[in-house]
Design goal:
Blueprint: E1 4-8, H1 13-25, E2 31-34, E3 40-44, H2 54-59, H3 68-75, H4 82-88, H5 136-140, E4 147-149, H6 157-161, E5 176-179, H7 206-219, E6 224-226, H8 239-253, E7 259-264, E8 279-282, E9 285-288, E10 290-294, H9 306-323, E11 331-333, E12 346-351, H10 358-378
Parallel strand pairs: 4-11, 5-6, 5-7, 7-12, 10-11
Antiparallel strand pairs: 1-3, 2-3, 8-9, 10-12
Amino acid sequence: MKFKTIVLTKNKTRIAAAVILCAVAVGIAAPIIVKGGGAAAVRVEEAFSPADDYESILEEGIPVAGDGNILKKLTGIDLSDPGSVIGEYSAAIKGTTPQGEQPPENSYEGEPIEPEEPEETPVSEENTQPAALPDHNAVCASVGLKINNATDYDVDIDAMCADKLAITPEDGKPLVLIMHTHTTECYSGDEMSGETERNTDENVNVIAVGNEIENVLTSYGIGVIHDRTYHDYPSYQSSYTRALSTIESVLKENPSIQVVLDVHRDAFVYSDGSRLRVACEQNGVPTAQVMLVVGTNSMGLWHDNWRDNLTFAAKIQNSAEIMYPGLMRPVNLRTERFNGHTTRGSLILEVGSNGNTLDEAKEGGRDVARAIAAALING
């Protein structure tokens, strides 16, 4: 695919942002922000029509046709503020990354690099077997849970934690679907270098973390289907649309499923080339922190059940705070829908970041899975 690279310096950012977004608005080209040294670089990809898959455009936050006011309303991007361009296209969530730098985009459509065997880190003995879970009263009684609310909705996450789950398991039938919209996302190590940060080897990408979550949930008797379909390869664009097709297909074949866990990993590259690592220690073992992302209907797409999803997230967050203090980053409530409308228990799990190792991510996956089990069994 042919593309041009435009380097945005401080002096040229405003002009470049306006030119790029105006081009997108009339259907000339789709921008993908990629990493590049200390400046943000923008690849202008092949032309697309704004009429093509309008819902996908909204889902993935890509600017669409219209004037600046409409663009800002739909995507949160303000043409008069080029900083909002970089912020909107960031994989790292505002308010959860270290201060001082704004993260660039982590979109990439090239060939994933081949893996080498990553170094192993210790595995907590507790994480090799089921652990006792908080009881109902503990799961539902939260105080001071943190939330980064990117919407205009007024929410009380502590109060929602006490609400009843809109999930009713059916004995002997699958309850949870684990899947991956950005399936090739992988972790720090020899398997990831340069600008790719993606790998098709399911032993080193987020599928491996999904496997750990699956194992923990099934150890508590929770029925799980783990779909390992690649939705972001060979093309990254419209991965949420392809993921929706997978979710709908699995739900049609398994109507007992009421929980969809879309497992990702976050990403942020600093100007010196170092990557964001979000970590804590649990039982003396380095562990990737986890962030729950909840979509809403703020952008106009149907999603009347988003508050049910947030209630589920609140119970998971509280259970994790009880069992593994420091494991969780603040819950993130977003304007985008992110396919959360498909069930009343749909969440994105950002397990670690591109600066974490795979073993750290597996530890984080196991820990948050135990909190998910607590929410489902005792919530």
